[in-house]
Amino acid sequence: MAGVAAIVGGGVIGGGWAARFLLNGWDVRVFDPDPEAERKIGEVLANARRSLPGLSDAPLPPEGRLSFHGRLDEAVGGAVWVQESVPERLELKRKVYGEIQAACDPGAVIGSSTSGFRPSQLQQGAARPGQIVVTHPFNPVYLLPLVELVTTEANDPEVISRAKTALEAMGMFPLHLRREIEAHVADRFLEAVWREALWLVKDGIATTEEVDEAIRMGFGIRWAQMGLFETYRVAGGEAGMRHFMAQFGPALQWPWTRLMDVPEFTDDLVDMIAEQSDAQSGAYSIRELERIRDDNLVGMMRALKANDWGAGAVLNAQDARLKAGTDLARRIDEVEDLSRPILTFAQAVPLDWTDYNGHMTESRYLDAFARATDRFMELIGCDADYIASGGSYFTAESHIRHLDEALAGDRIAVRTQMLLGQGKKLHLFHRMCRGEDLIATGEHFLLHVSLETRRPCAPRAEIEANMARIARAQAGLGYPEGAGASIRAPK
Ligand SMILES: NC(=O)C1=CN([C@@H]2O[C@H](COP(=O)(O)OP(=O)(O)OC[C@H]3O[C@@H](n4cnc5c(N)ncnc54)[C@H](O)[C@@H]3O)[C@@H](O)[C@H]2O)C=CC1
Ligand SMILES: C[N+](C)(C)CC(=O)CC(=O)[O-]
C-alpha cells in the first residue's frame, strides 16, 4: 500500500522513518529546517540500505523517490502518511500539527514519534484531532519492528486500521495500546532501567561499561527473544509462574531498586558519565557504532527468523506477503514464459552473507544457487509432499564462476536454464544477476534418488512430463557461455 509519506523532522528518528518508508517502496518527502538534514539522512539511509533489504528472504519493492523540501506545505500536500518527529516539546509539536493540518489531506494519517506524550495531549487544539495518532518507533526505525500505536476516542477506527495495515506492510509490528499513558509501555521500562543505571554509576557501584556488560552478557539477550513474563515463567522451573512469584515476589519489597528516586544531573554526574562513555566507546564514530549495532541486530533477527519466533516471526510474515506479490513461481503453470531462463531466486544480500573482504562470501553463492535449485525442483513437481513420499534429487556435481562482487543490500536474482532433464538426470545452469549485471553462474548436475534405497532411480511420470515441457520450451536458448567449463590453467 505504498504511497507518499512526508517526514516532518528528519533527525535520528525521522531519518530512520525515511529509510523504512523508502526501502518499502514509498516516495518520501522530508521537511526539516536543519541545513545538515540531507547529509544526515543520506548517511542513515546508507546504513539502512546495507542492513534492511537483506533481512528479508524475498525482494523488497523497488525503492521509492526521496526529496527534500524547504516548505512544510510542499512536503505534506498529497501525502497519505505524515510522520512527525520534531523534538520532544509539546508546544512545538502542537504548532507543527497546526501547520501540517493546514496543508495536508484530511484523510492522511498523522503519526507522532513522541516517546512520552499521550495522543490526547497532541490532539488538544488541533483542527482535526481524529487524524493524529501516536506511532512510537524504536531506534533504528528501519530495523526494529515495534511501533507503539496509541489512539484515543477521537480516532476513527478506519484511521487506526489504515495505520496498522501500512505499518505491517512495511514489516513493522504495531502494538496497539489498550489506553493512553505517559511514555506508553516500552519507555516505562527503559526509564526505570535508565534511572537505576544512573544511580549505579553515580554511587560508584559500576561504570557505564560494567552496566552495559551486565545487560548484554545476560538478560539483554534473553529479553530479545522471550520478553519478561515468558522468561520468568521459565525461570520458575516446572512449577512455573506461580512458583516464580512466590519465590521472588517478596524481594520486590526489599531495597533492590531506587525506582522514582532520580539522581540530579549535576555537572559532576554528567561529566563522569560522559567521560566513562568516551572511554568505553569513543574509539568508534556514531556511524561506526550504528553499523556495529545493525550487524548484530540483523544476525540476531535472522536467527529468530530461523526459529519463526518473536521479531523473527514478524519478518517471516512480511516475507510471505512480499513473496505473494513477486513473479517467483511455485508451479510450472505459474511461470510467465517457459522459453526463457526461469526466475528461481530473488532477494537482497544479507549483512551476515558478507565476509572480511566486504562482499558476499563464496559459500553464500552456493547457498543462493541451492535455493534456486530447490525452487526449480518444486516447479517440476518435486515439492515437500513428493519428497515426503520418498523421491528427491541429490546434487552430484557443482561448478560456480564468480564474475563480479555483490555487496550487502545488493538486490540479486537467479534465473535458471535446464540443460538436461531426462530420466533420473537433471542438469541446471543458474545465472545470478545484480540488476542487468551477470555476477556469477552456477552449474549443477543432479540425480533423482529414492530416499529409501538412497540409490538413483527414475522420477514419477509427472516430473518427467514437466521436464520435457521445459526442455521443449527452452530448446531455442542454446548452450550458455561458461557452461561445461572447468578451471583453466593460468596463461
Ligand atoms: N532518539 C530516540 O531514541 C527516539 C526518539 N523518539 C522521538 O522522536 C522525536 C524526535 O526525536 P529525535 O529524532 O531523537 O530528535 P533529533 O533532535 O535527532 O531530531 C529532531 C529534528 O527535528 C527538526 N526540527 C526541529 N523543529 C522542526 C520543525 N518545526 N519542523 C520540522 N523539523 C523540525 C530538527 O532540525 C531535527 O533534525 C521525539 O518526539 C522523540 O521523543 C522516539 C523514539 C526513539
Ligand atoms: C530515549 N527514548 C525515550 C527517546 C527512547 C525511545 O523513545 C525509544 C527507543 O528507541 O529506545
TrEMBL record:
The EC number(s) this enzyme carries: 1.1.1.108
Positions with a binding annotation for NAD(+): G9, G10, G11, V12, I13, G14
Keyword check for DNA repair: no
Keywords for this protein: Cytoplasm, NAD, Oxidoreductase
UniProt xrefs under NCBIfam families: PRK07531.1 (NF005716)
Function: Catalyzes the NAD(+)-dependent oxidation of L-carnitine to 3-dehydrocarnitine.
Family of this protein: Belongs to the 3-hydroxyacyl-CoA dehydrogenase family. L-carnitine dehydrogenase subfamily.
This protein's name: L-carnitine dehydrogenase
Provenance organism: Jhaorihella thermophila
